[in-house]
Design goal:
alpha/beta; Protocatechuate 3,4-Dioxygenase, subunit A; five-stranded mixed β-sheet; 10% helix
């Protein structure tokens, strides 16, 4: 549980707050979990390529432990990665990427003229723990022109098809309703990717975004690189 953004070491050591409450009983084939809907990755997957990222941790709010904190509202997003039967996906790797506070991506093809934030990491990576949990410390993204607020996700795991999706903010209902990509989802699918954030006294806002991946051996599977 996090109280101050400067507590980076503690953030990177601790994942899955209250994870004992998050385990789900095994389900039968007749009672499969709904698959997290796929969404476009967008044109601004971060560059340079993932293997060349200098900073590839789960704290997007600063580049190094002694760096200034990025602008914007700090928040925590966490969740559990499971498959359709409710089983954990223990080797999953979760990536997120998003705009900074001003609504701009760190990408050469983004023509948005809003200023970049030199202290924001823009992209993060987290491997799930033994309970299938991941966690990121980031900021509420700025509004990109033509879109509602969103965070891009990619989840990869051995022998499973990578899942690309997006997280949306429940408190931006009016903006969500105008977003073409969001509107392409059914109401049931929207409910799976629209997340409330709330903060207890003295804590950062926290949201829970659980991920359900497809089965092993599906077409298009890609092994996770070390």
């Amino acid at each position: 549980m996090f109280y101050l953004p400067s507590d980076r070491r503690r953030f990177l050591r601790v994942t899955g707050v209250a994870s004992a409450l998050l385990m789900t009983p095994r389900r039968s084939e007749a009672d499969e979990l709904p698959l997290t809907p796929e969404q476009t990755s967008g044109p601004f997957y971060p560059i340079p390529p993932i293997v060349e990222q200098r900073y590839n941790d789960s704290d997007l709010t600063r580049l190094k432990e002694d760096s200034p904190v990025a602008e914007g509202e700090l928040l925590i997003v966490s969740g559990q990665v499971r498959d359709l039967s409710g089983e954990l996906v223990p080797d999953a790797v979760v990536e997120i990427w998003q705009t900074c506070h001003s609504g701009r991506y760190q990408h050469q093809d983004d023509r948005n003229t809003a200023p970049l934030d030199p202290n924001f990491q823009y992209w993060g990576r987290a491997k799930v723990d033994e309970k299938g949990m991941y966690e990121f410390l980031t900021i509420r993204p700025g509004k990109y022109p033509g879109r509602t607020l969103h965070i891009h996700y990619q989840i990869v795991a051995p022998d499973r098809k990578p899942l690309v999706t997006q997280l949306y903010f429940e408190d931006r209902g009016a903006l969500n309703a105008e977003d073409g990509i969001y509107k392409s989802l059914s109401r049931a699918e929207q409910s799976l990717v629209t997340i409330p954030f709330a903060a207890a006294t003295g804590e950062l806002p926290r949201g829970r975004f659980d991920i359900v991946m497809g089965p092993r051996g599906a077409k298009g599977t890609t092994p996770v690189q070390p």
